[in-house]
Specification:
Blueprint: H1 7-14, E1 22-28, E2 36-43, E3 48-55, H2 64-86, E4 97-98, E5 107-108, E6 114-119, E7 124-125, H3 133-149, H4 168-181, H5 184-189, H6 191-198, H7 208-213, E8 219-221, E9 230-233, E10 239-242, E11 249-251, H8 253-264, H9 282-296, H10 302-329, H11 341-358, H12 360-374
Antiparallel strand pairs: 1-2, 2-3, 3-6, 4-6, 5-6, 7-9, 8-11, 9-10
Helix pairs in contact: 3-8, 3-9, 4-10, 8-9, 8-10, 9-12, 10-11, 10-12
Length: about 375
Amino acid sequence: MVKKLTKKEIELVMANFIVEGSLICFSPLGQGHIHDTFLVEIKTDEKIKKYTLQRINTRVFQEPELMMANWEKVAQHVNRKLIELEGEKTSKKSIRPVLTQSGQSYYRTPQGEYWRLYHYVDGCHTIETATTPEQAFEAGRAFGFFQKLIADLSPQELHETIPYFHHTPRRFERFLLAIEQASPERKARAADTISFALSRQSLVSLVTDGLSSGRLPVRVSHNDTKINNVLFDDETGKGICVIDLDTTMPGSPLYDFGDLVRTGTCAAAEDETDLDAVAMDMDLFEAVAEGYLSETADLLVEPERELLFMAGPLITFTIGLRFLTDYLEGDIYFKTKYPEHNLVRARTQFKLLHSMEKQQRQMQTVINCLLKILR
């Protein structure tokens, strides 16, 4: 849970950023698993301005300076590319950080907390799941456009902020260790879920082998392409901006497309308890794929295109594995709302994976047809 803060504590943090006016109110914002995020409203002589304030989770991002260096570089690159493509009026299409009085993109408190602030994008909203093909298409297109914008940003310019973040073999190794070290009670409650994960070991090296051999290129990728990391315009419903650049670092577009499929093709929540409601919707899959490939079909190389249909199952398995591992380790990474929250999340992911497995041939057919049309 987000630690409750007083107005005075928020004011002390805000005083370190270049912001004019006085604090009116603040409230928790979003449903992120990692950082503490707040909507802050500031009154000036002319109007009320809104900002997004975040306290960075330094347990997850143990080198926040490196993460923020990536964040700055990517945001600047995206802003520059947008201006080249569309001119100066791009404020709704990119993240605009607010600097501190000393010119930094973050503030470190005497207690060692890290905070950052950026302009709130008004007139927009996020969604947790896609309920229409139009939403799924827009999410896919937004992340595809983001991939296009960062295509010429060298991976060597960015730090690896969370080592081996999508490295499924490493995740699987840690999962096996977690099984050995888990309490008997947790291990017993998760027995069926553990068995499911162990039976999918063939997925583990699907992308990492290609990256290590050079068959798949290492690219800068977002690495956290959940559908709730797209801002949708309130009036048009269009996906206009990609947010949460914390894990933008060297990776693969396959990871990004995979997480899009995971979060954009199922109407059930990530922690849905009714597993009968968890399934991949083929119409939503086609919409996500069409949106993403409308921007990236010519950008991707053939080995990447060949694996696109497996990207969803791989990332769904990997995320489910991470939830299960965290449960076995005692819930030390993801925020939880109740004792078995991570176990519920893992079961939901694995049910979604099972649904994808049953529709695998259709997924491949859809991808192949779209590539013929869009290339």
